[in-house]
Amino acid sequence: MTEFGDFISALGEFGLYQKLLVLFLSLPLLLNPFQMIGQVFMVVDVPHHCDTSWIRAIGPNLTEEEQLNLTLPRDTDGAYEQCSMYSPVDRDLGSIVAYGLNSTEKCSSGWVYPSAQPPSLLTEFDLVCDRKDLNDISQSIYMLGLLLGAMIFGPLSDRIGRRPIFLISILLQGLFGVGIAFVPHFYVYMAFRCVVGASVSGILITTLALATEWVGVSSRPKAVLISHCFVAIGQMLLAGLSYGIRNWRLLEIAGSAPMFSFFFYIWVLPESARWLVTKGRIEEAKKVLQKAASINKCTIPPGLLEQLKPETQTKSGSTLDLFRKKHLQKVTLIMSCAWFSDSLVYYGLSLNVTSFGLDIYLTQLAFGAVELPARFCCIFLLQWFGRKKTQAVLLLLSGLMCLVITGIPEDQPVATTVLAIIGKFTATASFSTSYVYAAELFPTVVRPVWGCAQCRREWRGSWPR
Questions:
Q1: Cβ distance 112 to 48 under 8 Å?
Q2: How far apart are CA 323 and CA 266, in angstroms?
Q3: What pLDDT is stored for residue 203 in this prediction?
Q4: How much is the mean pLDDT over the chain?
Q5: CA distance 216 to 222
Q6: How far apart are CA 170 and CA 163, in angstroms?
Q7: Are 285 and 124 in contact (CB under 8 A)?
Q8: DSSP states of 366-388 as a string?
Q9: What is the DSSP secondary structure assignment for residue 87, as one 8-state letter?
Q10: How far apart are the first and last CA of the chain?
Q11: pLDDT of 276 above 50
């Protein structure tokens, strides 16, 4: 009986058609780091203190230093407190200067930031003091969007196709990504971030499915890892753009608006021929296979095409399918643990780029640059040592680097950053290995469902700690 792999072999496992397809699928991934990590550069900590302009009503001629000295308590180091102030009183300026103020309270009239500071999420929405946790919450809301997107777009890509879900996800990421730049309230910002996270999830799931279903088995690691290299390039672009564009709204537009340039995919992006066969749409599958063969300058024998038959009793996959068979149960549980560990290290390092003590833009550039050799090395590591050994060793090294970092003193930022970069290298390679491993272990009808499950692992693994 003829299998679908025979058709891929006939038209070329990784010919010009597949290379162009991987390129088209990879270009939107250049912008994914802007959504996943970009917020880190929008909430860089800046000096701030409570707004104590109430004293200006009774002392309009006070200098700024005099105002702060009268209205702000100091910490043990002698610096002004950032999150508390002396309670306003109904007294004249003379008595305040003579006797001072004693009772304190939390900032009740907002905060004051350096006037030369460009608008950022932190300064515009006051993400300081009691509101500081909103930054972590918003990042978790984005990860929740990844989960919801996987739950929605994963099964949908199996029901209506990979291509329409990919195009819808691009549209949503462009619309809501640009929309974030115009939100008036932080809660609206978080809602839009959730939708963007869902769209990113849709892009990742369908990219993995299309990239692996159109190429031969031996070329799947290459196709997946090439697409991942574009994520690494996007991380380096993020470092440059966030350094040059300090206004968070303009940075959001710069990282989202280019998605609209991919609308021409409506005319050039093909559906998965393998998926068409599983759905019994044989004539459509024949057309896309013949088009691929013509671009690859080869011919699929007519006799072989006639053997293309719909698969019997094909049905859409569900999450329960991952646990109905013993083999899939084992694979699902093991890969879930691996994915959780990948997420914990990868996002733990990526989202804490401001905590290592060196320039955050250079650190981000290094984090992006180290991902390229990490993805590239995976191609050879998987060929030389196989999936299982490579995954195990990389996970072990990732965890080891994180443990070593915890023992480095805070006054050694260079050592901490170097170890973090090594950890990022191993975590990135481990993540890429997990993608390839999962794509090969799970059958076509449950591959998008596994995408949903792995996003749950990412969400839990990246929850702020």
A1: yes
A2: 36
A3: 93
A4: 83
A5: 10
A6: 11
A7: no
A8: HHHHHHHHHHHHHHHHHHHHHHH
A9: P
A10: 53
A11: yes
